[in-house]
Amino acid sequence: MRITHLITRLIVGGAQENTIQTVLGLRAKSQWEQVDLVSGPTDPTLPEGSLEHLFDEVPNALSIEPNLVREVSPFKDALAFEALYRRFKRDRPNVVHTHSGKAGILGRLAARRAGVPCIIHTIHGPSFGEFQGSLSNLCFTAAEKIAGACTDHFIGVAQAMCRQYLAAGIGTPKRYSTIPSGFDLKPFLQSHLSKELRHKLGLEEGDFVIGKVARLFDLKGHKELFEVLPELIEKIPQTKLLLVGGGPLRDAFEDQLHAMGLRHRVVFTGLVSPEEVAPLMGAMDVLVHLSFREGLPRALPQAMAAGKPVIAYPLDGAPEVCLPGQTGYLVPPGDPSALLKALVELATNPETKKTLGQRGCQWVQERFSTESMVESIHQLYGRLLHSARP
Q1: 226 and 131 in a common domain
Q2: Phi, psi for 38 (deg, rounded to 5)
Q3: Which end is more exposed in the chain, N or C (fewer Cβ atoms within 10 Å of the end residue's Cβ)?
Q4: Segment 163-172 long-range contacts (CB within 8 Å, at least 24 positions apart)
Q5: Are residues 137 and 157 in the same domain?
Q6: Does residue 281 share a domain with residue 133?
Q7: Contacts 24+ apart (CB under 8 A), 310-313
Q8: Is the pLDDT of residue 135 over 80?
Q9: What stretches of 31-157 adopt beta strand conformation (E)?
Q10: What CATH number does the domain containing 120 carry?
Q11: What tens digit of pLDDT does each residue of 281-331 get?
């Protein structure tokens, strides 16, 4: 039995980490003759970084398709489709499992044309929704419906993803499963508030550190966090922000903070490796994730595993892990007063902060291990292949 995964690019990100962990976890199971990954190219010099190096010591696991690019490019898209079709005809995988937008569309169409018996797509985040214009929504929804007709099963990293695609008329309920995006819990469970790391980052022992782990990009909620910063500092003078991640908007964000006179209140780590995230979360008091578009943001359960309370918008999969009064607070999108209130509550009530962090840590341990995710996908493959047999 052969399994081929397909993703548009291996930048530093949750969908990419999920895919890599799935591929490596499945390769450790003896039932599969071959499990490999095909990806478009990434440029490690760009702010998004690259995770291709994780396959350096894993032979025959990763192949790069040079024409599989994120941008719409009719010429390259046609070449990528043809290359994927030829690959699937040659390798004859039993399962093609796609991830992300471009790879999901081209990969599923090429797999169906090549006669692959089982085609699966993981929805890591919505490709359509209120975060973009009506014309873009129309185009993306139409493309997902076409690819959906070639899909035997969908995996949503959150129940919200399944609901959104079903509401758009893509597939039927029996063709969907929800499998949370697992991760290695141990580094986060072992993280702690390190005075040494805080000092290295320029943070003081008594600072109230608000963390955010996200690319410096549109729709991630950085501007909304900056908006409440002046009033928050008036109420909580020891407030600092710790922004983990790189991206094309760093210069613009730094200019904005300079204009506000608050640049000294914000630490930018830049792009970090996945291994560096857990210690950085240990240096935080609370994690804020204000993304307007996300499947199930891994930063939320990761912060919870580190014992940190979380604040998020009730969008996409966030409400499935950020449970009001249990693991954190949900605040209405674009409501600075609600965000401010939640932050002040956590800054001034250490017992509340501690209780929410402890509850979140226990809750995540029961649901988000890598082993559980890989085993669920492994079992799903077996069921689908068994039902596909004549």
Answers
A1: no
A2: -110, 130
A3: C
A4: 164/126, 164/129, 164/316, 165/123, 165/126, 168/128, 168/141, 168/144, 169/145, 170/144, 170/145
A5: yes
A6: no
A7: 310/286, 310/360, 311/286, 311/287, 311/339, 311/342, 311/343, 311/346, 312/288, 313/221, 313/289
A8: no
A9: 34-39, 62-64, 95-99, 118-123, 153-156
A10: 3.40.50.2000
A11: 999 999 999 988 777 888 999 999 999 999 999 988 899 999 999 999 999
Q: Is the dihedral of CA 154, 155, 157, 158 positive or negative?
A: positive
Count: domains in the chain: 2
Tens digit of each residue's pLDDT (9 = 90 or more) over 175-221: 999 999 999 999 999 998 788 899 999 999 899 999 999 999 888 99
Lowest mean pLDDT among 3-17, 25-39, 41-55, 142-156: 41-55
Cα angle vertex 181, ends 301, 141, to 5°?
115
Within this chain, do residues 305 and 196 fall inside the same structural domain, yes or no?
yes
pTM of the model: 0.84
Task: Give the separation between CA 304 and CA 327, rounded to whole angstroms.
Answer: 7
**Range from 30-34, 115-119, 199-203, 220-224 carrying the lowest mean pLDDT:** 30-34
104 with 199, same domain: the answer is no
Residue with tokens 């478009």: 40
Range of the domain at 15: 2-182+369-388
